[in-house]
From TrEMBL:
It is a multi-pass membrane protein. Keywords: Cell membrane, Membrane, Transmembrane, Transmembrane helix. It is found in: Cell membrane. GO terms for cellular component: plasma membrane. It comes from Candidatus Gottesmanbacteria bacterium GW2011_GWB1_43_11. This is EamA domain-containing protein. InterPro entries: AA-Vitamin_Transporters, EamA_dom, EmrE-like. Its main location: membrane. The chain crosses the membrane at residues 31-51, 71-94, 100-117, 126-147, 153-172, 179-200, 212-234, 241-265, 271-291. Residues 3-139, 149-284 form the EamA domain.
Length: 300
């Protein structure tokens, strides 16, 4: 449990720094095309790591049909379709509303994890969930939120990522986190490439802005670490705990931006929001004892 928490915190830290770095190394490329190329690079990195591990190669040979089916779903839904929906939707509503909707991931994971994974939330954890919701959508949410087609696409992407995490939690029972992460990126990169071409953006995959070295390498490096640490954390933690820790990532980005870019003082209202959010995360994953898993049902 403790190692899983550390890995989830590492993932959160990487996510926060990644968003901050992406603001600095902006390439001006089409977001979907850039994401597709970046994910192809990450797929190549994870493939290299996999090929150097004899244990992982042996594991691939021993996978059963149901294992491959779950890996295919993880890659197709989470590594491919969800990314496409998210960035197409984001282009219609902007980053603030998009990230706000994406923050609901922990809620959808909880709705799915309780019936399908048998995870249980006690009263303290529910209070923590309420605190995170209050901090994110009441204290820290934009006043002019508008729900439109773009919002619906981002919400659909978030739901797919929630479903992916539940499927991954089942797959990780007997598959290593490296293999799950590798399958997610390799299959997802293929799906993303097909979607990008299908949307008429194939030529953008080779544009100078998309292939800009520094943005591509920095983003690919962060995503590689993110994928490896995230699935390692999810293997050791209940899905409801792991996804809650991730809500702290935007807070890290905000502090980094204020210190190194805007040099602006963070408003008191936002500081209060961060404090409530941190307390909520602590109540959900750090203060309470490890969650009890009700059976090992493989509902997916």
């Amino acid at each position: 449990m403790r190692k899983g928490i550390y890995l989830a915190l590492l993932t959160t830290l990487v996510s926060g720094f990644s968003i901050f770095a992406n603001k600095i190394f902006v390439s001006g490329a089409d977001p979907l095309a850039f994401t597709t190329v970046r994910n192809i690079v990450v797929a190549g990195i994870l493939t290299t790591i996999l090929l150097r591990s004899r244990k992982s190669l042996q594991e691939l040979k021993s996978l059963k049909r149901n294992d491959w089916l779950r890996l295919a779903l993880i890659g197709t839904l989470g590594g491919g379709v969800a990314f496409a929906l998210f960035f197409v939707g984001l282009s219609k509503i902007g980053a603030i509303q998009g990230n706000l909707i994406h923050k609901t991931l922990f809620i959808w994971v909880a709705f799915m994890a309780v019936p399908f994974l048998g995870e249980r939330l006690n009263k303290i954890q529910l209070v923590g969930y309420a605190g995170i919701f209050l901090a994110t959508f009441v204290l820290g949410g934009p006043a002019n939120f508008v729900f439109n087609k773009g919002s619906l696409l981002v919400l659909a992407a978030t739901l797919l990522w929630a479903l992916e995490n539940v499927i991954a939690k089942v797959a990780l029972k007997n598959i290593s986190s490296l293999v799950v992460g590798w399958a997610r990126m390799v299959i997802g990169a293929l799906v993303l490439t097909l979607i990008t071409i299908g949307l008429g953006k194939g030529q953008m995959l080779f544009s100078p802005k998309t292939l800009a070295f520094m943005p591509l390498m920095v983003s690919s490096g962060f995503l590689s670490i993110y994928v490896l640490s995230w699935y390692a954390a999810l293997k050791r933690l209940p899905a409801t705990v792991a996804t809650v820790v991730l809500v702290l990532a935007p807070m890290i980005t905000t502090f980094l931006t204020g210190v190194f870019i805007s040099h602006a003082v963070i408003p008191n209202s936002q500081l209060i929001s961060f404090l409530v959010m941190t307390v909520g995360v602590g109540m959900t994953g750090f203060i309470v004892s490890p969650l009890k898993i009700r059976g090992d049902r493989e509902g997916l």
